[in-house]
Design goal:
Layout: H1 2-12, H2 31-37, E1 41-51, H3 62-74, E2 77-89, E3 95-101, H4 109-112, H5 115-119, E4 143-147, E5 157-160, H6 171-177, E6 183-184
Antiparallel strand pairs: 1-2, 1-4, 2-3, 2-6, 4-5
């Protein structure tokens, strides 16, 4: 009897609840695969952040409103503007915007020397359980190594603090540079 009730419950639950129960492999792909599949890779500086307006909750049920408010509270939507410092791959615009959130992991994994970054599929980009949407934030004034094309990856938007001195360059940045042909962008 319990088995029948469980089966019915599973069949009646909307498929959306299982949309991202297991993250797609491209979100945790090998770093070399990430580099190969991404058309535009840049080193860019976050220059501005603008909080987006509150969504319209009319027409939502009370439960849907509650979930929307909780999601907004923890992942408040923000539009970030970036200025490209260096192009590592592709032909992106010199500046671009990207939607993000206030909260985010701003770690740089000890200049990406930490074992966890390399061995445990760690990265600062997080994906929400249930919908697999990217939930990361950026700090204005900080520099990021950015893989601009979807599907995004755990390592798509890594904070880089050591990039001006090749002798002491961030390990993730060096790894990507050594596997791409990059072009220095001169900011005017």
């Amino acid at each position: 009897m319990k088995f029948i009730l469980l089966t019915l419950a599973i069949l009646l639950i909307p498929s959306q609840s299982f949309a991202c129960a297991i993250y797609p492999k491209e979100k945790y792909a090998d770093p070399l695969d990430l580099i190969k599949r991404t058309e535009n890779i840049v080193l860019a500086k976050a220059i501005r952040a603008e909080v987006k307006s509150h969504p319209d909750y009319s027409g939502l049920s009370e439960d849907e409103k509650l979930m929307a408010i909780v999601d907004e509270e923890y992942f408040f939507p923000v539009k970030y503007e970036f200025e490209v410092i260096e192009v590592l791959k592709g032909s992106p615009e010199k500046s671009f915007t990207l939607d993000g959130h206030v909260l985010g992991n701003n770690s740089h994994y000890n200049n990406h020397e930490d074992k966890g970054f390399w061995e445990n599929d760690e990265g600062r980009t997080i994906f929400a359980a249930g919908d697999c949407k990217r939930r990361d934030g950026f700090a204005v004034g900080s520099v990021y190594l950015m893989f601009l094309n979807e599907p995004y990856h755990r390592k798509s938007f890594e904070r880089i603090v050591s990039f001006q001195n090749p002798e002491n360059e961030d390990r993730w940045l060096s790894y990507v540079k050594n596997r791409t042909v990059h072009i220095k962008v001169i900011n005017e």
